[in-house]
Amino acid sequence: MAKSTESNNPENPSPLARTPLYDLSLELKARMVPFSGWEMAVQYSGLSSEHQTVRSQVGMFDISHMGKFGLRGKQLRAKFQPLVPSDLSRLQPGQAQYTVLLNAQGCILDDIIFYCQEPDATTSEERAVIIVNAATRIRDKAWIAAHLELSGVSFTDISPDKVLIAIQGPEAVTYLQPLVTDDLTPIKAFGHLETNLLGQPSFIARTGYTGEDGFEIMVDAAVGKELWQQLLTAGVVPCGLGARDTLRLEAAMALYGQDIDYNTTPLEAGLGWVVHLDTKGDFIGREVLEQQKASGVSKRLVGLEMAGKHIARHGYPVIFESEKVGEVTSGTLSPTLNKPIALAYVPTKLAKIGQELEVEIRGKNYPARVVKKPFYRSPNRPS
């Protein structure tokens, strides 16, 4: 579940919402910050230690702030096809597609995950779960309702009713399996199932936003609280938004509102793999993407590695031959690689691997180089 992708510009800045796990985070003395209209834990024991624990063992994140929609109806996937550039007809029950909602200009309104579920046993209606970003939930809900053919389709916002916990890291299966009825090992990346967890109904997906193996679990609030406590007792380390951000950046996963937004197209953002022009019919923004595919894009989102220890942050100018040519969208000191990394948009002619650039940091220019994404690829991810 995504993800991909949260913005720190809340649609409703006051008052801050709290997840059902908020009090449990306070008990752990988490440092809380405003995020997408919510009061969220940015760290518990410390960003670096939480990050390294997820890379080497297992950690858990409260991501209950994210938007959660349930859909069901006849020909559901066919009716949703015009809203995304990805071909959903290829999905079988138990599979999922990371994709994007586009506006008429072919730009990204949000990145989402569409989970294709087993049909209803009684009515044979198709069913799906969609996970969206917290800051865009209200807008996404209105956009989908306005553009989806709702005849015979049920579209429900289940966000307030569900807790979402991500358990991430190479030992995720080991810690989660004892609490779940079904065997988790056969589930492939982006696979998912409905099963019993702690004796209660649950939705479990092998997705995440860290670049590691792991699962995202959606359950009722009471079950979520019990799950959090049991995982904590078992030794799973609670992790905050700080580690979530450094983990996703090492894996070059886009953050909505920074790396992708309604001014960028998926082809510019390196998300061409979600655009299936050859296998599906019309969709919102198709004409623009067809033109970009034919003529090429003018800018690209690239990975940058700084030559020294200076960190390129969001908004810093990218320089080539003394001229500003782009801007950093995300940047950090990678805890795994122990070097500064960043994402930035630059002109396509400067987007080749090995291209030497500079980043302006507090009035001085420092050398950077375009490198292959992702910056770090975990050996533990399932196929």
Describe this structure in words.
The chain has helices spanning 22-27, 47-56, 76-80, 137-147, 172-176, 221-234, 241-250, 286-295, and strands at residues 31-35, 38-43, 59-62, 67-73, 95-102, 108-117, 126-132, 153-157, 162-168, 192-197, 200-205, 214-220, 237-239, 299-306, 317-320, 323-334, 339-347, 356-361, 364-371. The protein is α+β, with helices and mostly antiparallel strands and 383 residues long. It has a 6-stranded mixed β-sheet with strand order 10-11-12-9-3-13, with helices on both faces. β16 (323-334) and β17 (339-347) form a beta hairpin. α2 (47-56) crosses α7 (241-250). The two termini are 16 Å apart.
Helix content: 10-25%
What structural category do the secondary elements indicate?
A: alpha+beta
Strand order of the largest sheet: 10-11-12-9-3-13
Q: What distance lies between the first and last C-alpha atoms, to the nearest angstrom?
A: 16 Å
How many helix segments?
8
Mean pLDDT: 95
Annotation, overall tally of beta strands: 19
Low-confidence stretches: 2-13
- In angstroms, what is the radius of gyration? 20 Å
Biggest β-sheet strands, sense, barrel: 6 strands, mixed
Any idea what the shape is?
globular
% residues in beta strands: 25-35%
Q: What is the helix/strand order? A: HEEHEEHEEEHEEHEEEHEHHEEEEEE
